[in-house]
Amino acid sequence: MAKLIGGPGRVAIEPSVAGTLLSFEDVEDRLVEAVRTCQRYPDRERGWQRIRSAWPEISRDVLAGDYDARGGDGSSSDVTLRSAAMTRQDVAEMEEAFGWLDAIRPADRKLIGLAIGQLARGRREVSWLRLLPAMGLTKGAEGLRMRYGRAITSICNRVNGGTLRGADTSRG
Predict the structure, then answer these.
(1) pLDDT exceeds cutoff 90 at 151
(2) How many domains does the chain contain in total?
């Protein structure tokens, strides 16, 4: 996987991984994973709206042990901890993939967002007919598919520094 360096509007491939080029499918998969990572982010506003006073609900459980409300008789170190939902690497890859969208027009960003959203929800193929109303169109599903292919290809070209590997823009 290529590691990109540079600021907004400037993208360069780090020399240590310059031999790694991303294909059309690689970019599409990374964008799908970025959307799935974004969906795992906690909704702080909803959490804040659901908060309530915990005072009336506090009751000491004698069998829980000291300062341990997780159900163990021993100390809290006896209880296995759950792993975090996301790692810093996941978030960094998500931000990198979303940064790739700066290479395309805003109208194409909307199209990619809608199409990748369908794929992130588990669909095997994008339903271009369902995207027509969201894009403000009544016909032209094939045109949307071709625009999507061109947009992903331009992202590939930008990420790979003008070199595209395994481009198949007829997918959809």
Answers:
(1) yes
(2) 1
14 assigned to some structural domain: yes
Residue 18 in any domain: the answer is yes
Classify residue 20: in a domain, yes or no: yes
Q: Would 58 be classed as within a structural domain?
A: no
HEC assignment per residue over the chain: CCCEECCCCCCEECHHHCCCCCEHHHHHHHHHHHHHHHHHCCCHHHHHHHCCCCHHHCCCCHHHCCCCCCCCCCCHHHCCCCCCCCCHHHHHHHHHHHHHHHHCCHHHHHHHHHHHHHHHCCCCCCCHHHHHHHCCCCCCHHHHHHHHHHHHHHHHHHHCCCCCECCCCCCC
Q: Which domain holds residue 134?
A: 4-41+85-159
Q: Indicate the pTM of the whole model.
A: 0.64
**CA angle (100 as vertex; 98, 103 as ends), nearest 5:** 130
Express each pLDDT in 34-68 by its tens digit.
999 988 887 766 655 666 545 555 555 556 555 55
